[in-house]
Amino acid sequence: MYDFAFQKPTSVPEAVKLLADPEAKALAGGQTLIPVLKQRLNKPSTVVDLSKLGLAGITVAGGVLTVGAMTTHVTVATSADVKKALPALAALASNIGDRAVRYRGTIGGSLANNDPTADYPAAVLALGATIKTDRRSIAADDYFQGMFTTALDTAELITAVEFPIPEKAAYVKFANPASRYAMVGVFVAKGPKGVRVAVTGAGQGGVFRHTAFEQALAKSFTPDALNGIATPADTMNADIHGSAEYRAHLVGVIAKRAVAAAG
To answer: Rounded to two decimals, what is the model's pTM?
Structure first.
């Protein structure tokens, strides 16, 4: 680990000012940044700790569930408000990584990093959520722009995520047994924005909407509605854990399970 300055601001404007340095890095839960620093794969001038910005918390009002950016996975998983308003999100959070990751990792950190195998991006995209930052609101369809790439500008901080509460929703993933990252994860939702299906862990460009599944489920929200709909293998990831063809097949299998779970 290389030497760096450490700052712990107490306001969002102060944090944004510190992060204006292009060599500064924000620290949310640290589940990605700390391992990268330990492996000397990044050399920030300053690490900016976001823990004192008051960005944690969960509220429900007007058909919207709002989760503060610094809210940990375990808090989302165990929140009575989340379990009542959006149980699929609580279930998703309860299966992120391991116990240590869930107690330290945050929803804002996950979305800012936009790992192509992370779970939260599937929920945000399928639910048509809105990412709130220190300067604007970003629709989920505009936010995700490829692997580890988002619409965030330099020094722009996520402050909260607003989830429209759906009529029904579910998330199912086929997890790597070691890392618990999604080899394929599918979040299905039927709500104010219609039927939406998002797939994580499988696509070459990161999380994506499966429009063919959406069109079929809009006509009949049943697992059988997805029969015969293929996912192109040439758009899938391939690695030592599974070929592109394997992942393409899994997308259909997992999507059917998610629809069945949504009920």
So the answer is: 0.96
